[in-house]
Specification:
Elements (H helix, E strand, L loop, with lengths): L1 E7 L7 H15 L5 E9 L4 E8 L2 H7 L2 H11 L4 E6 L8
Antiparallel strand pairs: 1-3, 1-4, 2-3
């Protein structure tokens, strides 16, 4: 599995309610998505950040999702290009 961190950080026009609305509107797009194990939308008003965490079943699934077109769309939504980082999950604990 992979973990992806996308962070639209420290942007001037941060609006927590707008970020929450983006997340709620996007939720259905990710439900049942092939290769996506889970996704968390997060917000940190104190740091003026919106961060999304993805857990993918494979590196191929993650790589196919993060296209240049997607990054441009996310940049348009948040007003800043997200930083993207891939890391390998060593151990994942799920209690649900």
């Amino acid at each position: 599995m992979l973990y992806w961190l996308g962070c639209a950080s420290s942007y001037d026009n941060f609006d927590e309610q707008a970020v929450r609305k983006i997340a709620e509107n996007a939720r259905a797009r990710f439900e049942g998505m092939p290769g996506l194990h889970s996704k968390a939308f997060t917000v940190n008003s104190g740091k003026r950040e919106a961060t999304n965490f993805y857990v993918w079943d494979s590196e191929d699934a993650a790589g196919a999702f993060f296209s240049e077109a997607l990054l441009e769309r996310v940049t348009g939504l948040y007003g800043v290009r997200p930083a993207v980082e891939f890391v390998q999950i060593v151990t994942l604990v799920e209690n649900a």
